[in-house]
Design goal:
By secondary structure, this protein is mostly helical. The chain has helices at about 5-40, 45-85, 85-120, 125-155, 170-175, 180-210, 220-240, 245-250, 250-260, 265-275, 285-310, 315-320, 320-330, 330-345, 360, 370-400, and strands spanning about 160-165, 165-170, 350-355, 355-360, 410, 445. It is globular.
Length: about 450
């Protein structure tokens, strides 16, 4: 393999694995925020207790994914300097600001709000605690916006001019309103909600299928996951189609490969505009990835839509094969999302910044041996982190709410002996860990041990 192939393989593998963390983070956090809000404003103490318990259960899965995923994000940043210094040199004046903002939001603002939410159980007022989880959701999507602005410039560069062989930003507004970035962000948002909804529905259905002692507590989560998955998976197909007219104008070879167009005519046009080059790159991979994404997307949309109607007759709860089918669907939205990422990134070859900078020109002057070693190390680290993440998520998902550590509380030594540790919160209504209770609560808050 050439140095360019090794660098591309490294970045493709690490970014693809990191993307699985990102898509679940974006899909799960609004569901957790909604569940927390609904639990906090439920008046009936018994129902509030169940809903808060489920909020902590899903919140713990989210925290695990976020904690491990952010490590992959930190490691991945080093690759820009290691393998792609040409990209930084050419597009750093444009590309750098969105990347810096994404880093500040994801690694500082989002993580700060999440930490305050984790440690705020039983300590913060109800309104403040709810505001924190919604701020976590807001910053997660703000982070996604900035990274898509950076990626959108690579896909469809706008708002710049070339001076002395370097891109300089001339129109910040055009960069922020890049249609390639905004349409992709809409598509990704709906894909993330599909992932989150199917995961919630699948884990909930699993507990009904196995007859878990906590199964009845998953009834509300099952409904929410099925509805979110059905709505999001329906509109994600529409959002994907909205990108095609823009791609036909800005990346004609990609659409020609995907739609069976006249590839030779498009290649001749690109040679005339940009000079000789390999413009017919990996078209078989593009079509295969597009087919995988389309088939899975339509299947998930159909199954979740049918599941919405099955909820009315309680078949998802009573029919074990149907419940197991929902559980078996969990990995498929992840696969579809990864296939969509392949279509987006591979389809603009040979460019790293479309029409301006090729992959070969962006490559750092690093030897094949160094790239081979770094590729092996990076991929091994990312695979280890992915296995760790999914092992932890699967373990806590199987154990159910009874084993949840996030937000649970323990009585202090001077409390009455017979008082339940889960009945903390000290607020009106006496619900367990009531976020509207006394900020101190006379208890210690237990955070998850990963």
């Amino acid at each position: 393999m050439s140095a360019a192939d090794l660098a591309r393989l490294q970045f493709a593998a690490t970014t693809g694995i990191h993307w699985l963390f990102v898509i679940l983070t974006m899909g799960l956090v609004p569901i957790v925020a909604f569940l927390h809000t609904r639990a906090a404003y439920t008046r009936d103490p018994a129902r509030r207790a169940v809903r808060e318990r489920m909020t902590r259960f899903w919140g713990q899965l989210y925290v695990i994914n976020y904690a491990v995923g952010i490590v992959t994000g930190l490691v991945m940043e080093f690759q820009f300097g290691l393998s792609w210094s040409g990209l930084s040199k050419f597009a750093g004046n444009v590309f750098g600001a969105p990347l810096a903002l994404e880093t500040l939001i994801a690694f500082f603002a989002e993580s700060t709000f999440l930490g305050m939410w984790i440690f705020g159980w039983g300590r913060l007022s109800r309104g403040a605690h709810i505001a924190l989880i919604w701020l976590v959701a807001l910053t997660a999507y703000a982070s996604a916006y900035w990274i898509m602005i950076a990626n959108g410039f690579m896909q469809h560069p706008v708002g710049y001019e070339i001076r002395d062989g370097v891109a300089h930003l001339t129109d910040f507004g055009a960069l922020l309103a890049n249609p390639n970035a905004l349409l992709a962000l809409l598509h990704i948002t709906l894909a993330a909600l599909t992932v989150g909804g199917v995961l919630v529905a699948g884990i909930s259905a699993y507990h009904f299928a196995r007859g878990s002692e906590d199964a009845d507590q998953f009834r509300g989560s099952l409904r929410l996951g099925v509805v979110v998955g059905a709505v999001a998976s329906f509109f994600v197909v529409i959002a994907g189609d909205l990108q095609l007219p823009l791609l036909r104008r800005t990346q004609p070879m990609k659409t020609a490969a995907l739609e069976g167009g006249d590839v030779e005519r498009v290649e001749a046009r690109l040679v005339q505009e940009h000079g000789p080059g390999d413009y017919v790159f990996a078209h078989d991979w593009l079509r295969l990835s597009m087919d995988v994404m389309t088939i899975i997307g339509n299947t998930v949309s159909t199954v979740t839509l049918i599941a919405v109607f099955l909820l009315r007759k309680d078949w998802l709860v009573r029919r074990r094969p149907v419940a197991l089918l929902m559980t078996a669907m969990i990995p498929f939205p992840f696969i579809a999302s990864a296939a969509g990422w392949v279509v987006r990134e591979m389809g603009r070859q040979p460019w790293i910044v479309y029409g301006e900078l090729t992959v070969e020109d962006a490559l750092s002057p690093v030897g094949r041996t160094s790239l081979a070693v770094s590729c092996a190390v990076f991929v091994a680290i990312f695979l280890a982190l992915a296995v760790t993440n999914w092992t932890l998520i699967a373990r806590f998902a199987r154990r159910g709410p009874s084993a949840t550590q996030l937000g649970s509380t323990e009585p202090l030594a001077d409390e009455a002996d017979g008082e339940s540790a889960e009945g903390s919160g000290g607020g009106p209504g006496g619900g367990p860990g009531d976020p509207g209770g006394d900020p101190g609560g006379g208890r210690r808050v237990v955070v998850p041990v990963l």
